[in-house]
Amino acid sequence: MRKKFVAGNWKMHGSFQKNAALLDSLKAQSENLACEVAVCVPYPYLAQVQALVEGSRIALGAQNLSEHASGAFTGEVSAAMLGEFACRYVLVGHSERRTIYGESDAVVAEKFAAALASGLVPVLCVGEKLDEREGGLTDQVVSRQMAAVLERVGVAAFAKAVVAYEPVWAIGTGMTASPAQAQDVHMAIRAQVAALDAGVASGLQILYGGSVKPQNAKELFSQADIDGGLIGGAALVADDFLAICQAAV
Ligand code: PGA
After folding, report:
1. Which of 145, 193, 209, 217 fits 126 for a cystine, CB–CB 3.0-4.6 Å?
2. What ranges do the domains of the chain cover?
3. Does residue 223 carry a pLDDT above 90?
């Protein structure tokens, strides 16, 4: 039985003061949650949040990493650097990285490999754009994004990774995929992995992301192949994030 997992993606939000207040509330109520919990924070707050979550059930994550180990890559951050802050997770290939910063499937696959090589758990984000969904291309796009990484690292690597299905049209828009729409894609992702290794597929946590709120979390998370959520906007509001975590049982 897969454990449910809820990860917050703070995106480019926060301040020392806001982070401390948010983590105080989360820590106070996270002890009796049934699911795994993580917060993926902006780089400058890694040290602060590392200290704040120490000894709690909340794991630390980052939102991006370089595909390179070190070198002349001004402005970039390596997996090993993230490891020094006791990061457990790192988002890889979030749609904002793919669309705004032009990360190709190949670059995403390299980043995934770099995360694994440093012992971080990559959270691979996949998902189609609105025109792709409307054009009936959802399965094709998601399976292409998955295949690029599977071919680069091999299926066994997914025993130490998480996948997040995030339809781009649902991110930050208030438009959520229906539980049935999301379940269809999650099932297809699991089947793609199962075709290579059934054991890895059955243990793989596949999160749903895209306008998850306390009101819709329970129904989404009760689908057979939805193992939790990657939460953007609602992760910045302690009560909302906690309510979403409570829906993950
Ligand atoms: P949202 O973002 O919950 O605000 O839609 C999700 C994400 O981008 O990970």
Report:
1. 145
2. 5-247
3. yes
79 within 8 A of 118, measured Cβ to Cβ: yes
Distance (angstroms) between ligand 1 centre and the Cα of 44 equals 20
Is ligand 1 within 6 A of the CB of residue 63?
no
Q: State the distance from the centre of ligand 1 to the C-alpha of 67, rounded, in angstroms.
A: 23
φ/ψ of 239, rounded to 5, equals -65, -40
Mean pLDDT rounded to a whole number for the chain:
97
Residue 217 beta carbon below 6 angstroms from any ligand 1 atom: no
Residue 32 has pLDDT above 90, yes or no: no
Query: How is domain 5-247 classified at the CATH fold level?
Result: TIM Barrel (3.20.20)
CA–CA dist 62, 84 (Å, integer): 12
Check: CB of residue 158 under 8 Å from CB of residue 202.
no
Strand partners, 7: 38, 230
Q: What does pTM read for this prediction? A: 0.98
